[in-house]
Design brief:
The chain has 48 residues and is of the alpha+beta class. The chain has one domain. It has one helix and two strands, in the order βαβ. The mean pLDDT is 88.
């Protein structure tokens, strides 16, 4: 059971659509759960 998925993206452009993929997957699965989104800097530091 998915309670609250955590999506980690890097700040580089190639990862910018990962959040949209997760939202679409949740929508297709019929899940209405809160998402958590984290951004990693290019040096591995947490951005948000």
């Amino acid at each position: 059971m998915v309670n609250s998925p955590l999506t980690l993206e890097m700040e580089v452009p190639c990862c910018s659509s990962l959040e949209a993929f997760v939202r679409q997957a949740l929508k297709i699965a019929g899940k209405d759960v809160p998402e958590k989104i984290g951004i990693l800097g290019i040096e591995g530091e947490a951005q948000g």
